Amino acid sequence: MAKKKCTYEAIERVPTGIGGLDKLMEGGFVKNSTIMIRGDTGNGKTLFCLQYLYKGAKDYDEPGVYISFSESTETICQHGTSFGWDLKELIKKDKLAIVRYEPHEIVGIIAQGGGSLRDVVEDMKAKRLVIDSLTAYEMVFENQYRANESVLNLFELLRKWDSTALVTSEVAVTPEHASGGRLGFLTDAIINLYHCRTDSTRKRAMEILKMRDTNHSDYLNEFEIGKNGLKITKLKRRGCHRRR
Questions:
Q1: In terms of Cα–Cα distance, which of 214, 222, 220, 221 is closest to 240?
Q2: Domain boundaries, the chain
Q3: Could you read off the pLDDT of 120-177 as tens digits, one per residue?
Q4: pTM
Q5: Quick check: 128 and 63 in contact, CB under 8 A?
Q6: C-alpha dihedral over 124, 126, 132, 137, to 10 degrees?
Q7: Which run of H or E residues covers position 159?
Q8: How far is residue 86's CA from residue 159's CA, in Å, rounded to a whole number?
Q9: Which of 9, 49, 106, 228 is the most buried (most CB within 10 A)?
């Protein structure tokens, strides 16, 4: 009897819009996955997320939604202006939505199965989402168990919306202490952003700590923030299989 051949469905990828990054992760993020972007204050998390949404809308015709727990639409659009990104024009064309919620409002939205946020995502047919930040969201809860439970429910909601989501987490990680953290097991991927001191200067570096179903680089890769946004400057492509 002839043996049946095993067939594998190709994993669909979403380009990140970050210069050089896709080469380190088999072409981009896994479609419909949830990726945590971690780093201390000023490490480039918000810029990373804005670039992901901007490039998605401009270069790949994928509408996006930016969910903020602190900054206003005007402030976020101003961030984009610094890099020549006309976010207001994308908003007018229904390619981008920026919505601000108080963290406790999201708790109610989750309980309603998505509520007004679901309406925004569905009306736009959004393919990319950003939540900035998970740290602010966690502060709503009286204990860590409740926080973890609600974050898990939030991630499950995101996966139902046929979108690839980035969530930021403000935490002081270093290359020497870069574990997945308390919420790391809930996400499909973790990317750490560092601003490391070397002698009398600092250098920015990025590390793909975890990414399911992906053969990714296990190096620190230097990046810069220039006039066009964030770009990896020194690529180290060696990968390690971490398929979980």
A1: 214
A2: 31-241
A3: 999 999 999 999 988 888 778 878 888 888 888 888 888 888 899 999 988 877 776 6
A4: 0.88
A5: yes
A6: 80
A7: helix 144-159
A8: 28
A9: 49
